[in-house]
């Protein structure tokens, strides 16, 4: 029977390009950003997903079974995954540590530090999911190829074809539980909890920062009025005051007004970075929920698929059981492939979201160090 299996080569039917946030991805029901008047993510994240550096991530996340690969019983090998943390995580751990080390340790900055740690752990978890999706694709490949080469009418199969199907089912059943972990392995709870805490802290800081900027604007306007009044007074008094006295009065009047706009500009720059950071945290939080839902759905599809294969092999080489199993698998065939691709696409966007959230927070910390106290 092995000679039959050696003839089963796998053909990659489609060459997928990196997904975009247009259409399906940006319309996920978890992306509730449209209900928030302060968050507009579409343009920024479409640009990020389509960036050449992120397309390199897609080439490492998306896997295809090599067209020339022949799959044999007991010869499916799950090799070590080439994808490493440094391949997908930007800014790097070292870069983040360099920026964090000199900053003032307050409640918000402590949460930001914790958030950076959690994004690293989340990236590792996403790599694990990517590895398992690749394993699933290799694991399902012989069954998918079998469905491609067998006649659509299961009643017309020869005994040799039934035996071939049974051997492939048996191989699948022996490997699936050993190589694909249970859904409880994928837990984003720490990341999600940290996101909510940080989002609340940043919103509080945003409120305070906006109040300070508003106050600073009022002071600036007040200084301008005072300057005008003082200038008028100086002009009137110039008739009776010496020239050197006039210069002193003008310099005294102008000094505070000149300093305030510079302070306001720096504080507004920090405010902009805080707002960007909130958007990054918001998007990543929602997209992690999307990935979790997709992984749960993939597990459900796989469990249903595995149950059908178990049904086919439970009674030995019984033709009736094999016929029913093959019919059901044909109905589930497309769904299993689509779920694998969907998880890969959303993992790619998730890596992009992780990196953008990290980048926004790092920019905020840089501006914070430059801003006036």
UniProtKB/TrEMBL annotation:
Where is the protein found, in the record's own terms? Membrane
Q: Record's InterPro entries?
A: DUF677 (IPR007749)
- One matching Pfam family, short form? DUF677
Q: Name one cellular component (GO) term.
A: membrane
Q: Which UniProt keywords apply?
A: Membrane, Transmembrane, Transmembrane helix
Where are its TM segments located?
224-254
Q: Which family does the entry's similarity section mention?
A: Belongs to the UPF0496 family.
Protein name per UniProt: Uncharacterized protein
Q: Please report the organism this UniProt entry assigns to the protein.
A: Anisodus acutangulus
């Amino acid at each position: 029977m092995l000679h039959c299996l050696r003839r089963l080569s796998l053909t990659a039917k489609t060459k997928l390009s990196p997904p975009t946030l247009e259409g399906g991805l940006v319309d996920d029901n978890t992306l509730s950003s449209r209900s928030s008047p302060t968050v507009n993510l579409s343009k920024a994240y479409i640009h990020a997903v389509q960036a050449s550096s992120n397309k390199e991530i897609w080439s490492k996340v998306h896997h295809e079974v090599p067209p020339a690969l022949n799959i044999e019983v007991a010869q499916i090998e799950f090799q070590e995954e080439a994808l490493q943390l440094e391949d997908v995580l930007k800014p790097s751990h070292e870069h983040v540590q360099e920026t964090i080390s000199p900053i003032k340790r307050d409640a918000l900055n402590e949460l930001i530090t914790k958030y950076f740690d959690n994004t690293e752990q989340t990236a590792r978890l996403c790599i694990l999911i990517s590895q398992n999706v690749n394993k699933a694709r290799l694991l399902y490949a012989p069954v998918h190829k079998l469905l491609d080469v067998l006649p659509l009418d299961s009643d017309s199969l020869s005994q040799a074809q039934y035996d071939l199907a049974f051997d492939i089912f048996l191989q699948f059943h022996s490997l699936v539980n050993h190589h694909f972990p249970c859904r409880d392995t994928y837990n984003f709870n720490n990341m999600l909890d940290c996101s909510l805490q940080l989002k609340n802290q940043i919103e509080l800081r945003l409120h305070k920062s906006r109040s300070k900027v508003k106050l600073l604007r009022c002071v600036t306007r007040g200084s301008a009025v005072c300057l005008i009044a003082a200038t008028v007074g100086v002009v009137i008094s110039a008739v009776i005051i010496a020239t050197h006295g006039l210069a002193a009065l003008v310099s005294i009047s102008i000094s505070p007004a000149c300093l305030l706009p510079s302070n306001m500009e720096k504080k507004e720059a920090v405010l902009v970075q805080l707002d960007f950071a909130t958007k990054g945290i918001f998007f990543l939080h929602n997209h992690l929920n999307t990935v979790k839902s997709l992984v749960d759905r993939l597990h459900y599809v796989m469990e249903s698929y595995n149950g059908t294969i178990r049904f086919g092999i439970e009674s030995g080489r019984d033709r009736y059981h094999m016929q029913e199993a093959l019919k059901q698998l044909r109905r589930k065939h497309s769904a299993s492939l689509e779920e694998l691709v969907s998880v890969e696409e959303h993992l790619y966007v998730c890596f992009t979201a992780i990196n953008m959230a990290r980048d926004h927070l790092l920019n905020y910390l840089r501006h914070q160090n430059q801003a006036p106290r």
